[in-house]
Write a structure and sequence with these properties.
Structural class: alpha+beta
CATH architecture of the largest domain: 7 Propeller
Strand content: 25-35%
Helix content: 25-40%
Number of strands: 15
Largest sheet: 5 strands, antiparallel
Distance between the termini: 16 Å
Strand order of the largest sheet: 13-12-11-10-14
Radius of gyration: 32 Å
Shape: rod-shaped
């Protein structure tokens, strides 16, 4: 009976030792890489795999209220109005339209009209309006607003007097899409180049990359090390008796 019990403990000791050995090899390999991080340029090499970025809570918020004028995009991302890949002001309301007037862009929300230059700098802003905006449009040098009651208003400057009109040759703003170039720039704005290999290997080394699961795994390894130590001492003591 004692021999059977001894064999079970020996087998338990052996398998735990094998598991710990694999774990120690993992620590040794990642440790070697980290020890030569500068020489291997691990801090200069970046990875931007989507699943990996999710592990680091890095993600690109979904753009909405997208309007396209030529190669330029206007959109609302994460509570800010973006001009291409650059945030230009906080989005207090949904962006409802964007039009180009000569060398400037006119952006409209329900109660505010903003004029910016081609560098995304705000030139004018008007929020005292005789209407609630539904859409914005351009015809010639005039700016037009279609309000929620279906009336059309016009002006030559957003700070001038708005007048009712019956014009029907207006080019109204329409929703568009983020161009591939701006999509790449927006991604870089939110996640940069990704995560460095140095950080990834360090987090593999510590288990932090697996977040809560990594902590639990290291707890299990610690418990197994304790069992391995006590079982080793016990087996050594038994052998000395015999």
């Amino acid at each position: 009976m004692k021999i059977k019990k001894l064999k079970k403990i020996v087998n338990l000791h052996r398998y735990i030792g094998l598991g710990i050995c694999i774990f120690l090899v993992h620590l040794a390999i990642t440790g070697i890489f980290l020890n030569h991080s500068i020489g291997l340029r691990l801090d200069k090499t970046f990875v931007a795999w989507p699943w990996l970025l999710n592990q680091y809570n890095l993600f690109v918020p979904e753009p909405k209220n997208i309007f396209t004028i030529g190669k330029n995009n206007f959109s609302t991302i994460d509570g800010e109005v973006f001009f291409n890949d650059k945030p230009i002001f906080l989005a207090e309301e949904d962006l409802l339209g964007a039009s180009q007037n000569k060398n400037t862009f006119i952006l409209a929300s329900s109660s505010t009209i903003t004029e910016i230059n081609q560098d995304g700098i705000i030139l004018k802003k008007e929020n005292v309006l005789p209407f609630t905006v539904k859409n914005i449009g351009i015809s010639g040098d005039e700016i037009f607003i279609n309000d929620i009651q279906g009336k059309i208003w016009s002006t030559e400057s957003i700070n001038d007097v708005w007048k009712l009109t019956n014009r029907n040759d207006i080019e109204w703003s329409e929703e568009g899409y983020i161009t591939p170039l701006n999509e790449k720039k927006i991604t870089k704005y939110f996640v940069g180049d990704g995560v460095s290999l140095e950080q990834i290997i360090l987090d593999f080394h510590s288990g932090a990359i697996f977040q809560k699961a990594g902590k639990i795994f290291f707890d299990i390894i610690s418990i197994l090390l304790i069992i391995l130590s006590f079982s080793g001492i016990w087996l050594w003591t038994i052998k000395r008796k015999y």
